[in-house]
C-alpha cells in the first residue's frame, strides 16, 4: 500500500495518522512480525521498520540498544527484506536506516529490494537532500517514497530542497537531539509546523510517547505522529509485549481521531 493512499483514506475519515516505529529483528525477525500485527491491530496506520545499523547517530539509547540486540540476533539487509516480504498487513511499510547500508547494497538494488518486499517508503536520517540524487532517482523508478527530515534548525534553502524532494510525508523532528521519550512536546514543534508550507503530509516525531503529547502535536497542525522509543521500551522489557504495544497504539490512535 502506498503512503499517499493511506493519507487519502484517513482524510476521508477525518483522521490523522499514527506512524509506529519498531527495530526489525528485536528480539527476533519472527517476533517483529507479531509485534507489527499487534501495532496494526491497535490502530497504527503506517509502520516504520528500522533496519539496524551499528552506528545509529540519530537514535537515543533506547533504539541504539534495540539495534544492538537485533544485530546480535542476526538481523541484516537480506534477512530484513525476507521478513518484510512476509508481513501481510494492509498498511504501508517504511524502511528507516542509515545510508552506509544503502550505499553498500547499491542505491538501485536497495530501492528495488524495498519495492519487491512491499516497502513503499525509505527514511535516511544521515542523507541530506543535496547528496540524495542517485537514491532519489532509484526510488522514483521503483515507486518508493524517499522521505526527508526537517529539524528546528533547518534553514530556509535546505527546507525548500527537502520539501521539493520528499514524498509520502515529510518527517519533522520535533526538537534537537536524538530519539527518545520526553515529558513535554517542545514549543519548537509548534514553531516548525507553522514554518512549513507544503501539500505533503507533515509527520512529527522524536519524543512523543503518550496520547496527550500526540494530541498536542495534532492540534499544532501535524497530519501524523511518529512514535518509536515508547514501543521499543515495551519490546525491551520482554513482558506481555504484543498486548502492551497494541494497547499503547490504541491509546495513541484515539488522539489521531
Automatic annotation (TrEMBL):
Enzyme class: lyase
Pfam families hit by this protein: Trp_syntA
Pathway the protein contributes to: Amino-acid biosynthesis; L-tryptophan biosynthesis; L-tryptophan from chorismate: step 5/5
UniProt keyword terms in alphabetical order: Amino-acid biosynthesis, Aromatic amino acid biosynthesis, Lyase, Tryptophan biosynthesis
SUPFAM superfamilies recorded: Ribulose-phoshate binding barrel (SSF51366)
Enzyme nomenclature, EC number: 4.2.1.20
Record GO terms (molecular function): tryptophan synthase activity
Gene Ontology cellular-component terms listed: cytosol
Name this polypeptide is given: Tryptophan synthase alpha chain
Gene from which this protein is expressed: trpA
